[in-house]
Automatic annotation (TrEMBL):
Organism the protein comes from: Croceifilum oryzae
Record GO terms (molecular function): 3-phosphoshikimate 1-carboxyvinyltransferase activity
Positions with a binding annotation for 3-phosphoshikimate: K42, S43, R47, S188, S189, Q190, D333, H360
Protein name per UniProt: 3-phosphoshikimate 1-carboxyvinyltransferase
Domain of life the protein comes from: Bacteria
Gene: aroA
Secretion signal span: none
Length: 452
């Protein structure tokens, strides 16, 4: 992977660090202590933007995340004729009531798995229009087939423009019939979320049968929760094995979005590593976002969590505990966070059941194994996970492979080891453009090197 080139075209106007080649991170002089507020959740933001755009009437969304993923989502919706006004982190959207106003064009969705999987069904379900949807280099390599096949079975007019199973795709707004559809959830929960979001616009009810398990099933619950907030009629039980959606247009809403639980954990991991304390003032443990359960993993490693009313606090420990095996399937965006702090535990940590993250922004199991090995840490890589042994990482230079979670996780190692160098740190703008500023504010030393 040595001659890897990031796709800089996917960096948006909300990205930072455009001309930064390397971020060098070094430890704080004392434990990381701080009170922080974290930007809005990518998952809630892109769902709410897309559903509000399709809805009848006006929606006002507060606490919106401003990052590459949400920028390209808004950009695409505007290309479809949706009126969107942005004031700081508040967005006002005039919904198109099921009928996109601009009926042709090429829609560029950047690297956002959410937009790539949530929008095609709503394009196909609309009343007329012909579009091409394409993504960044990494998004164009991520799987789409399970979703597209399911939508086609419901009558959606979607064709692959280049390679079967991948973006770019061509879509026609000719409506979707509805009926019964079987779908697999083992590669991505986003396929099921995308199918659900579109199903409210089918001619007759849609019954979705999940033929296996859903990786990160909580994201499907977030989808159902938000659909219901926008007035959808859905029936499901806790197992999510069968979900029925009745035809019913979304109605515009005023919604306060939650902070991003995935982002929060980088700051909790800093407290964990340095025996410090970090309090997050705008998220509580009762969120539906699955990554909140990483707090429980940190507790298992010897940290203490205070689950307050409207806040969360994590107190670190003098020595992180290892010697355990864990399935990260239900919160797999935190696999790299755990892998980055694992060398500092007092025993090996084995992570299982995350084969699907090889198909995220990068081959995440392969990339983190490569980085840790380069740092001199003993790693055993398996198809569905890895085992990391305790050790003292060497300060080397690692590529972020255009993956925000690789860059943010490597920065954690810089809390313990002076001079960890991260190539192309700008990829953090996919979900957290302010990441390096924020870790500096809580005490880490960050040196940004610009392109010569
Ligand atoms: O629906 C969502 O908002 C997400 C679902 C998950 O994806 P997969 O189910 O594809 O793993 C997660 O990794 C991603 O960051 C956000
Ligand atoms: C997998 C991720 O993103 P996406 O929404 O593009 O799937 C992620 O944020 O870790």
């Amino acid at each position: 992977m040595e001659d890897f080139k990031p796709d800089l075209h996917a960096r948006s106007e909300w990205a930072t660090l455009h001309d930064v080649e390397v971020a060098e991170v070094s430890p704080a002089s004392q434990p990381i202590n701080g009170r922080i507020r974290v930007p809005g959740s990518k998952s809630w933001t892109n769902r709410a933007l897309i559903i509000a755009a399709m809805a009848e009437g006006t929606s006002r969304l507060s606490g919106v995340l401003k990052s590459d993923d949400t920028y390209w989502c808004i950009h695409t919706l505007r290309q479809l004729g949706v009126q969107i006004e942005i004031n700081e982190d508040e967005v006002i959207i005039e919904g198109v009531n099921g009928d996109w106003l601009k009926k042709d064009g090429t829609l560029y969705i950047g690297s956002a798995g959410t937009t790539a999987r949530f929008l095609p069904g709503l394009l196909a379900a609309s009343k007329g229009g012909r579009w091409t949807m394409e993504g960044s280099t990494s998004m164009n390599k991520r799987p789409m087939a399970t979703l597209i096949t399911a939508l086609q079975e419901l009558g959606a007019q979607i064709k692959y423009s280049e390679e079967d199973g991948f973006l770019p795709i061509q879509l026609e707004g000719k409506g979707i019939r509805g009926g019964v559809v079987n779908i697999s959830g083992k590669t991505s929960s986003q396929f099921i979320s995308g199918l659900l979001i579109a199903s409210s616009y089918a001619d007759v009810p849609v019954t979705i049968r999940v033929v296996d398990h859903i990786v990160q099933h909580a994201y499907v619950k977030i989808t159902l929760d938000l659909m219901e907030q926008f007035g959808a009629r859905v029936e499901y039980d806790d197992s999510l094995s069968t979900i029925k959606v009745y035809p019913k247009a979304y109605k515009g809403q005023d919604i306060q979005l939650e902070a991003d639980a995935s982002t929060v954990n980088y700051f909790f991991a800093l407290a964990a590593l340095t025996n410090g304390t970090v309090r997050v003032d705008n998220l509580s443990y009762d969120t539906l976002q699955p990554d909140i359960q990483f707090v429980d993993v940190l507790e298992r490693m010897g940290c203490t969590a205070i689950k307050g009313d409207g806040f969360l606090e994590l107190q670190g420990t003098a020595q992180l505990k290892g010697n355990f095996e864990i399935s990260m399937r239900e919160m797999s965006d935190q696999t790299l966070t755990l892998a980055a702090i694992a060398p500092f535990a007092d025993g090996p940590i084995s992570i299982h059941e995350v084969a699907h993250i090889r198909k995220h922004e990068s081959d995440r199991i392969g990339v983190i194994s490569e980085c840790l090995t380069k740092m001199g840490i003993q790693v055993e890589e398996r198809e569905d996970g890895l085992t990391i042994y305790p050790g003292k990482p060497l300060a080397v230079e690692c590529n972020s492979y255009d993956d925000h979670r690789v860059a943010m996780s490597l920065a954690l190692i810089g809390a313990k080891v002076a001079g960890v160098r991260i190539l192309d740190p700008g990829c953090i703008s996919k979900t957290c453009p302010t990441f390096f500023e924020e870790i500096e504010k809580v005490g880490l030393q960050v040196r940004l090197e610009k392109n010569a």
